[in-house]
Amino acid sequence: xxxxxxxxxxxxxTTPGRMCLKVCTNPIVSKASAVFLSSRASRCMIPGFIKxxxxxxxxxxxxxxxxxxxxxxxxxxxxxxxxxxxxxVLVCPCDGLLTIKNIEDDCIIEAKxxxxxxxxxxxxxxxxxxxxxxMALIFRLTPSHYHRYCYCASGNIAGQRRxxxxxxxxxxxxxxxxxxxxxxxxEYTVLTNHSSGIIVQMEVGAMxxxxxxNSEGCHPGNAVVAGTEKGFFEYGGSTIIVLLEKQCDISxxxxxxxxxxxxxxxxxxxxLLGEMKDxxxxxxxxxx
Length: 288
Known about the structure:
Elements: H1 6-13, H2 15-24, H3 27-37, H4 46-52, H5 70-74, E1 96-102, E2 108-111, E3 114-117, H6 118-122, H7 125-129, E4 135-141, E5 148-150, E6 155-163, H8 172-177, H9 180-183, E7 186-193, E8 197-204, E9 212-214, E10 223-224, E11 229-233, E12 238-244, E13 248-250, H10 252-255, E14 264-266, E15 273-276
Antiparallel strand pairs: 1-4, 1-14, 2-3, 4-12, 5-11, 6-7, 6-10, 7-8, 8-12, 9-11, 13-15
């Protein structure tokens, strides 16, 4: 497993570093960084970033004349031939490292040494109660991953919400010491799907990710299709959390992959499910 950088170890592993976190996790710092990362001057960072992170640029479309800024490169698009068209009820919303958690009756996700209430995560106790006994799929994106993401399922958008917060990094060292997912800025979409019930797809921002950019079509009442682009993160590591109101069997292909510290590598658009188990129908309980 790739070691934490010296800077991250300092911030989350030392007393002086934790004192600096209040500044580093402030969204204002992220926004200030974004100004530079969106400038032409930031293009000089691209070659070194590609080399350090061993990014295979064959997968990505490069605009004529090259990328206009580091953020233009970071939010790069896949070439058409590298897009997955999996025929599945549920697909991976992004490239990333997958952790699978069952949601117990008290609606708690346990990640590393932190426990997360689904009600705290969503800011909505009524919605959270629907996922008791369900499953949480946590996709962690590192800076080297492709940072555009798609809808994980087809259905109708029943709700959309943004919750402002601070911006911790999402590396394991941070998740061990901070309640990252309920402190960070995040947005989520509630989908209703007749075959798989109610699904929440949440994007969680992270340190130096001041912007979660969802598409114009991400509004209540709209119908969406699994695998269709939903939006993108700007620079940094980020997380997508998918909440399912029922238990499901993750595909054997994914479960048989080698996991590192419990995280399984996955690719945007690939089929997630083996077989969905029987489920209650709570679609009628969701308000728009």
